[in-house]
Amino acid sequence: MSDPRLVYIEWEDASSVDLTTGWVYREGAPPPDVRVFKQVGFLLELTPEAIVLTAALDEHQMGPRTRIPAGMLRHLVELDIALGAPLKIPKKRRRKT
């Protein structure tokens, strides 16, 4: 099995409105906030109904999956990890005693 592609997505979340105030008058009610999230992950599935991502995987296992309905998806870009410069892992510093 080949590794899934790494992708960057932006998606709009469903949300409840007026949680802190409860009932509000329709006239003059403030507009609801739009919540758009940015996420990076390994693409497991992309269908007309939904996209499914995971943040971690190996040959046999994967971490928790996120399923986002296609109607909430705003932007999808495949990332080419070969284009980026590799980061160096910082060395642990010894504590002076």
- Specify the number of helices: 0
Oligomer state equals single chain
Largest sheet: 5 strands, antiparallel
Binned strand content: 35-45%
Could you name the CATH topology of one domain? SH3 type barrels
Mean pLDDT, to the nearest integer, reads 86
Helix content: under 10%
Q: So what's the overall shape?
A: extended
Order of helices and strands: EEEEE
CATH class of one domain: Mainly Beta
Give the beta-strand count.
5
Give an overview in words.
With about 100 residues, this protein is mainly beta. The chain has a domain at about 1-15 and about 35-80: Roll (SH3 type barrels), CATH 2.30.30. Helix content is about 0%, strand content about 35%. It is built from no helices and five strands. The protein has strands at about 5-15, 35-45, 50-55, 65-70, 75-80. Strands 4-3-2-1-5 form a five-stranded antiparallel β-sheet, with no helix packed on it. The radius of gyration is 20 Å and the shape is extended. The protein starts with 5 loop residues before the first strand and ends in a 19-residue tail after the last strand. The mean pLDDT is about 85.
Topology:
Blueprint: E1 6-13, E2 35-46, E3 50-54, E4 65-69, E5 73-78
Antiparallel strand pairs: 1-2, 1-5, 2-3, 3-4
